[in-house]
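re: ur question from yesterday

yeah so i grabbed the chain u mentioned. its 200 aa long if i counted rite. heres the sequnce exactly as i have it in my notes:
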Amino acid sequence: MLSRSRPLFRHCSTQLRALSSASSSSTPWFVDQEPLPRPTVQSPLSKASTVPPVPKDAPQVLRDLQSQLAQSPHLDVSKLVVCRAVPPPSAEPLPERLPQGKRRRGGTIAGESTYDSLNGIWSWFVFAQVKEGTEGRGAVESVVRQVRKSLLTRIPPVTLPPKSRRQMGSGWAMVDGGNFAIHVLSKEAREKYFSDTLPQ
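ran it thru and got these structure tokens back, copy pasting raw so excuse formatting
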């Protein structure tokens, strides 16, 4: 049985020698003479996302915050927006009525309010959207910690309310910076709550 298999191997090696001697070039037969053009495929991780510009009249604290948040691996930097607050829609004022009864209820004259200003409570908003699929794995909490640390380590530090112990399970958290508010949110929360005020 061994004697029969040896001539077969000799025959194969003879054919291989004949194939290798037939090609006169130094490149093997399976390599193309001219390289084929490769299609350009961009990985979603290597996409050069551009950060939207900050308005020229934005406070310096928001400019610094945006530049720090643009380095975060949790955020979609193309959705990192700093914008002026949208004025609340104008509505017909309530008829003025004095409080009535023993407990003095039902009055509509409450005095001055922060809602009487043109922009509402805050003058500026920062919207930071986390990458899709990371909102349930602590990305929102991580960005909120980064925002709080950035604002508290400034000189002078920005006064912030105490940290909430409540879990951020809705995919949306807000940090109140006094004159501005930072919204850290998922794509679903952005589409649900801010679809009419922010560009998609």
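noticed a couple things. The radius of gyration is 33 Å. also The beta strands are 81-84, 124-129, 172-176, 180-185.
anyway ttyl
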